[in-house]
Amino acid sequence: MKYRTIGTDPKTRREVSVLSLGAMRFGTTTDEATSFAILDRYVAAGGTFIDTSGNYAFWVNGTQGGESEELLGRWRRSRGVSGEVVIATKVGARPLAPGTSYTDNAEGLSSQVIRESAARSRGRLGVARLDLLYAHIEDPAVPLAETVAAFGALVAEGTVGLLGVSNHWAWRVERARSLAAVAGLPGYEVLQYQHSYLRPRTDMPGSRSLDGMPGMLGGDLLSYLRAEPQLTMVAYAPLLRGGYVRQDKLDAAEFAEFDHPGTPARLAALREVAKDAGATVNQVVLAWLIGAEVPIIPLVGASSVAQLDESLAAVDLELTAAQRARLDEAH
Ligand SMILES: NC(=O)c1ccc[n+]([C@@H]2O[C@H](COP(=O)([O-])OP(=O)(O)OC[C@H]3O[C@@H](n4cnc5c(N)ncnc54)[C@H](OP(=O)(O)O)[C@@H]3O)[C@@H](O)[C@H]2O)c1
User: Fold this and answer.
1) Is 280 a pocket residue for ligand 1 (Cβ < 6 Å)?
2) According to DSSP H, which parts of 193-317 are helical?
3) Are strands 3-6 and 14-17 parallel, antiparallel or unpaired?
4) Which of 157, 233, 255, 279: disulfide with 283, CB 3.0–4.6 Å?
């Protein structure tokens, strides 16, 4: 395994593995025994960065979520896992009632919600301090200053270590970080966005914004990361939920942003490099992200130990300059 540092403050920054494991489906679509086996394998391979959310996975059984955090809490207790593994969780996108969603009825990012949801997450995970807490989606109804102050208060009292942000427009990330800096408060240092090798169209309205999809990593955020190298980018859905090896998944409506003339050239380059490197296409995608000029932590899901093993092997795959150029230049 390889490691890198997230965060800057010596009191809260952490060393984490360059491959993160998503627990979104654990406890719902992935049963407990399989989830525990995947978690055990990840830790045995040196993995130390697990991702969940207070709302995972509400949509499976029409609940408000929490099943993933609860499973992680049971796993931590049964394995005696403590500070060596960083567990990131999120607040803001929990539906306020069973049977509803974050698109129509999200808890949001008010001071009260942040405090209550963080406490709920701590209880489920069985920890006194959340290692990393993300603002999951934007809450345009709450002043950013209120959200920033509420997160800062949790860090000050020691119940949260690092702060992160997901699915926000770049300007909102920068504005929140500026407000925090001016107020002398900790700001978001870990960013979590959808990102993979295939380039998405960015001109299509998303479920949360008519202006496009705020959750997609684009040029605004990439240039921000270049300018602020102390920030960390975590990429969700890097394997397109299996879309690189299952055409039917890539063709599904949820990935309509990849239905454009640039996609076949990227897929061809990927297959070519995979053959050349003696690796799978999934592994080439992960190695491409990890070793990028602006390095990115892929956040992979897995529904079996075999899938995780394929992803873990990508950590040791070093793409040559020629292979990387072939991938970068395809469009
Ligand atoms: N911040 C956010 O808004 C946000 C949004 C989404 C996800 N996330 C986080 O990101 C994590 C990963 O997201 P994700 O699960 O949607 O994306 P992903 O890692 O791209 O996809 C995981 C799925 O891909 C398939 N897969 C994985 N490895 C494979 C392999 N070697 N061969 C073939 N198929 C393989 C499996 O599908 P099958 O089970 O069908 O085989 C697996 O369930 C989540 O667990 C969550 O923690 C965050």
Assistant:
1) no
2) 219-227, 247-250, 263-277, 281-290, 305-313
3) antiparallel
4) 279
